[in-house]
Amino acid sequence: MSTSTVTSTSILASTAGLDQHDKFGYWQDVVCRALVDLECRPVSGMAFEASVEGSCLEGLSVARIEASAHRVERQPSAISRASEESLIFNFVLSGVAMAQQDGRSVVLRAGDGAVCDAQRPYSLRFDDAFKILTIKMARSAIAHRAGSIHRITATSFGESSQMCPILFGYLVSFSKQASLLPPAASEKVARNFTELLAAALDEVILASPLPLSEYRATALMRVRDFVERHLDVCELDTSMVSTALNLSPRYINKLFEAENTSLTRYIWRRRLERAAADLQDPSRAGLGISAIAMAHGFNDLSHFSRAFRQRFDLSPRAYRASGIASGASTASAA
User: Is the confidence at residue 212, as pLDDT, over 60?
Assistant: First the structure.
């Protein structure tokens, strides 16, 4: 006789004892309720058996699945019904699995695993009987890495992460003990496992090649970060940035072309914006305009005044006065 218990803390189901004609339909229903909404397809002419045992914790589910050959697909209709954003990790205990997503496919054998994003279609293929450990994790648990997940879906952890054997061993132990631990211990173990999984994700992400558009975005971010940290250096220019970041001047200015500017104009704009903020900062009221200009990388006061007027339609002195007047008006109204 089949058993099926799916609660907030446990997952337990088996096709044992069911009529052969009912086994697969029952299994798909269990998977959809307990793990993630998938479309399951049997392999023609083969008998089917399956079981699942696992635990559901806050933001994390871990399940041990043993089943006959079959296929599963995450389809757009199921994605549209989802009430949460999740990542699905599958680690193979025995047998072979093939995962496909985002135009990539990977063959996974015992000890290896891969991640799939449940917000986009994916498929899993099992040509023979298998055992896997499946983890369902809320994307919010690794929010700062979520934007890079699309680069590593259907990618072997074993080939890209030196932490994979450690993660795999921890996962095997965790899956066996999770249901036996008291709540406080379960939460702590789940938190440790999430951190270990996140560290392995970082390794795989760092090992993956960036698409060209992301190379450019990353390079632009590096340039902007360098500029922000050196705005007060009078010598800051394209040559200095190029040498420091090992990027050609031509490539750097290509990065800024999409924003209809150049690195030089960007540096001047950011310097002027910082100077403008200081001119209206009450804590800097005792500083002269020339001191503020020099503090932000300007060594020619007349040039600073002309550039400032062009940017803000006021001289530095008038701009400072407008801030003082505005502050006095606000104070009197209060």
Answer: no
